[in-house]
C-alpha cells in the first residue's frame, strides 16, 4: 500500500515540475517579464521584436508616433548623446535644465531635458522638452519622447 502511495506522490511531483517548467518557458518566451513601454501603440513583445530585427549599428530607431510625439529607442546614453543631444547643440539649441522624476520608492521614472533656442532680449525663444525613459533596469534600453516638429 505504501509503495502505491509513493508512486502516486512521485508522479504528482513529476507532473508539477513539468507544468512549472512549461509555465516558466511560456513566461519568458512571451516577454511578460518586461514592463509595458511608456507609450500605448506597441506592446513590450513588439518593442523587443523591432529592437532585435531592425537595430542598426548605432542602435537608434524611431519606433512609434503617438499624440504628436515621436518615440525613439536607443541602446545606451552614449547613443542618445551622439544622435540627439550633440546635434541639437550644433544647431543652436542650448541646454537649460535636466530634471529627474522618481517614484515614491526611489526608482527613476524619467529624465526631462529642456533646451531653448533663439533666446534674446524681448523674445522668449523656443523651448524643447525631451523625455528620456529607462525601460528595463538591468538592460540599457532607453526610450525618448520628442515632439514631431523637431529637426535634429
Give the CA-based shape. elongated
- Quickly give the structural class: alpha+beta
What are the low-pLDDT stretches, counting only 5+ consecutive residues below 50?
none
Strand order of the largest sheet: 1-2-6-5-4-3
- Estimate percent helicity: 25-40%
Strand content: 25-35%
Distance between the termini: 78 Å
Mean pLDDT: 80
Number of strands: 6
Helix-strand blueprint:
Blueprint: H1 2-29, H2 44-54, E1 61-66, E2 69-74, H3 77-90, E3 94-102, E4 108-117, E5 126-134, E6 142-147
Antiparallel strand pairs: 1-2, 2-6, 3-4, 4-5, 5-6
Write up this protein:
By secondary structure, this protein is α+β, with helices and mostly antiparallel strands. It has a domain at about 45-145. It contains three helices and six strands. The protein has helices at about 1-30, 45-55, 75-90; strands at about 60-65, 70-75, 95-100, 110-115, 125-135, 140-145. Strands 1-2-6-5-4-3 form a six-stranded antiparallel β-sheet, with helices on both faces. A hairpin with an 8-residue loop joins β4 and β5. The longest helix has 28 residues, at about 1-30.
Amino acid at each position: 500500500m505504501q509503495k502505491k502511495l509513493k508512486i502516486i506522490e512521485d508522479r504528482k511531483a513529476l507532473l508539477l515540475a513539468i507544468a512549472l517548467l512549461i509555465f516558466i518557458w511560456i513566461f519568458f518566451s512571451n516577454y511578460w517579464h518586461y514592463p509595458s513601454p511608456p507609450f500605448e501603440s506597441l506592446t513590450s513583445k513588439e518593442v523587443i521584436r523591432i529592437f532585435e530585427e531592425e537595430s542598426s549599428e548605432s542602435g537608434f530607431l524611431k519606433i512609434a508616433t503617438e499624440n504628436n510625439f515621436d518615440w525613439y529607442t536607443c541602446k545606451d546614453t552614449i547613443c542618445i548623446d551622439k544622435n540627439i543631444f550633440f546635434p541639437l547643440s550644433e544647431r543652436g539649441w542650448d541646454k537649460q535644465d535636466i530634471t529627474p522624476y522618481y517614484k515614491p520608492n526611489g526608482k527613476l521614472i524619467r529624465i526631462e531635458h529642456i533646451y531653448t533656442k533663439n533666446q534674446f532680449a524681448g523674445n522668449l525663444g523656443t523651448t524643447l522638452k525631451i523625455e528620456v525613459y529607462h525601460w528595463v533596469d538591468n538592460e540599457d534600453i532607453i526610450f525618448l519622447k520628442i515632439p514631431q516638429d523637431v529637426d535634429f
